[in-house]
Amino acid sequence: MRILLFLAIALLPSLSLAGGSVTWKEVQTMLAKKPELRKLIESTFEVEKEGDAIRLGRQFENLGGLRIAPYRFKATAKDGSVFLLTVNSQKTFVLEDGTRLATGDERMFKANRLIEVPTGFSVEIEQPVIE
Fold it and tell me: Is 75 exposed, middle or buried (0-12, 13-18, 19+ CB in 10 A)?
């Protein structure tokens, strides 16, 4: 059953997950859980104020519309190089009674809360726009 749920989410992203905008300030709140990671990112890059994230769909009864990692932002290094910065996290869905759900647990659609803990970041070279 878990495999089917995973495949449904992975193969039909338009039904359960979609893109949405997120602010760097919102991501900074999550990064407060790992201040050394936030410090490394902010000492290396100037991060744009707006970025993209995954948006949970209506199937998430209590969390629909919530933005979750990976968070992606345009970021400029101190030397002027432009990158695409991706911040990743570990996600734990929590039911109303406090039960923490393992990844892929079908009850995640009924979760009342999501705990995100940053796990790291990656950078990619920002591709120039070809006109």
Answer: buried
What is the pTM (predicted TM-score) of this model?
0.80
How does residue 20 score in pLDDT terms, banded at 50, 70 and 90?
Answer: confident
Q: What are phi and psi of 128, to 5 degrees?
A: -65, 150
Structure tokens at 91: 């996600």
Bridge-partner residues for 124, per DSSP?
A: 84
Interatomic CA distance for residues 33 and 89, integer angstroms: 11
| DSSP 8-state code for residue 129 | P
Indicate if the pLDDT at residue 36 is higher than 60. Answer: yes
Pseudo-torsion of CA 123, 128, 130, 131, nearest 10°? 130
Sign of CA dihedral 46, 50, 56, 61: positive
Q: Which residue has the tokens 């991060």?
A: 47
- Across the range 83-99, mean pLDDT stands at 97
Angle separating helix axes 24-31 and 35-44, nearest 10 degrees:
140
